[in-house]
Amino acid sequence: MADKTILRSLAGEVLPTPPIWMMRQAGRYLPEYRATRAQAGDFLSLCYAPELAAEVTLQPIRRYGFDAAILFADILLVPQALGADLWFVTGEGPRLSTITSAADLNQLKPTADIHDTLNPVYETVSRLSKALPDETTLIGFAGAPWTVATYMIAGRGTPDQGPAHALMQNDVAVFDALMERLVDATAEYLIAQVKAGAEVLKIFDSWAGSLDDAAFEKYSRQPAEEIIRRVHKAVGKVPMICFPRGGSQAGYEAFAKTEGVSCLALGQDADVAWAARALQPHVCVQGNLDPGHMVTGGAALVQDVDDICAALSGGPHIFNLGHGITPDADPDHVHTMIDAVRRRPAAPLANAG
Ligand code: CP3
Fold first, then answer.
1. DSSP strand pairing (86-89 vs 93-96)
2. Which of 52, 78, 207 is nearest to 141 (CA)?
3. What pLDDT score does 116 carry?
4. Which of 124, 274, 283, 296 would give a disulfide with 53, using CB separation of 3.0 to 4.6 Å?
5. Cα of 136 vs its chain's centroid, Å
């Protein structure tokens, strides 16, 4: 079998050089992405055009030789597949029809119907699983129920997820019912991605940081655990990366001990020395370079790469940014980052975990 370093790290192996990929590696900072997106017309049309979505997924693999490709899609396709209206306003971000009442919830489509909308995404996965180089791992993904719910409730991105917190306080029955719908749909969506050829799955809980400890447990960790349980029951033990971004150390530690979690992704604010101590004995750790370095480059970038790699070199590690690369990033700085990761001298005593 081809040597897939990402799968080895996810299985707990400590490699002399950590494998590397980058959140939003297919994106607007790349001229070839902008060209294909223009060909598709707009972002959502690109997500639903398997040939073009596969093409943009492959672009950063060709340019940089990353160890993993992440399916090109968006976390907001699931609400759309459940019947929410979704559109993107240039320069502002996503807009959705809102869900704030039992009546709104009743308007949503049955979970089984999501595939009618999402079939092109599975087609993209299946094309990629044939087109990728043997050593490149294909990562599928979905948004976590909490993060997706924050967009569905507010109808847009919000700085503090205020509308979702308000619904949780004021009408917990509706909030819980929406979360349950999202657990169902997300599990079904991820199972279909694995059937189409995804080798690893990542659950993005980008707004987990605004949940207090009790709410984090109930609305971030437990839904992830339930989704993983269903996925593993349906398609076997595919490796799972969880990204409860901004969660507390206690929250991350609880995730690390959760059945079926292979890897925790860190935001750039997380302390890597703590992660080495508290998380790596249980799981692989992914991260966590500040994406701002992809805009500014230079010696500070290389220094931070070295510090992160050194801190996490004693356990399983996948190198990544702490959040997605931004449109104003310089594609050359990505080369600098990759070179800095790969030129590191082999760690002494690299051993299988
Ligand atoms: O990482 C990848 O390359 C895979 C594809 C991917 C996209 N979005 C493509 C995208 C993934 C994994 C996502 C996840 C996603 N989408 C998240 C969670 C991760 C995170 O960043 O916190 C969230 C919250 C979304 C929702 C979303 N999609 C927003 C808020 C926006 C607008 C903000 C922006 O960057 O413009 C998007 C649009 C989006 N999703 C783009 C891309 C490449 C830019 C669209 C464009 O081409 O105009």
1. antiparallel
2. 78
3. 98
4. 124
5. 17
The terminus-to-terminus CA distance of the chain in angstroms comes to 20
> How close is the Cα of 254 to the center of ligand 1, in Å?
27
Which residue is closest in CA terms to ligand 1's atom 39?
74
Confidence of residue 345 (pLDDT cuts 50, 70, 90): low
Task: Compute CA distances 57 → 119, 130, 302, 353, whole Å.
Answer: 17, 13, 26, 31
Give one DSSP letter per residue of 123-183, joined into a string. Answer: HHHHHHHHHS-TTPEEEEEEE-HHHHHHHHHHSB--SS-HHHHHHHHH-HHHHHHHHHHHH
Question: What would the pLDDT profile of 94-126 be if each residue is shown by its tens digit?
Answer: 999 999 999 999 999 999 999 999 999 999 999
Tell me how far the alpha carbon of residue 274 lies from the centroid of ligand 1, in angstroms: 29
Per the CB < 8 A criterion, the answer to whether 30 and 59 are in contact is yes
Ligand 1 in reach of 139 Cβ (< 6 A): no
Task: Specify the pLDDT at position 3.
Answer: 87
Domains contained in the chain, CATH given: 5-343 (3.20.20.210)
Identify the CA nearest to 322 among candidates 335, 308, 311: 308
* Helices 31-40, 50-64: crossing angle, 10 deg rounding: 170
φ, ψ (nearest 5 deg) of residue 34: -60, -35
User: If you ran DSSP here, which 8-state letter would residue 156 be given?
Assistant: B
List of E strands, the chain = 68-70, 86-89, 93-96, 137-143, 200-204, 240-243, 263-265, 284-289, 317-321
Question: For position 353, what pLDDT does the model report?
Answer: 38
- Which residues are part of the catalytic machinery? 24, 28, 37, 74, 151
User: d(Cα 340, Cα 336) in Å, to the nearest integer?
Assistant: 6
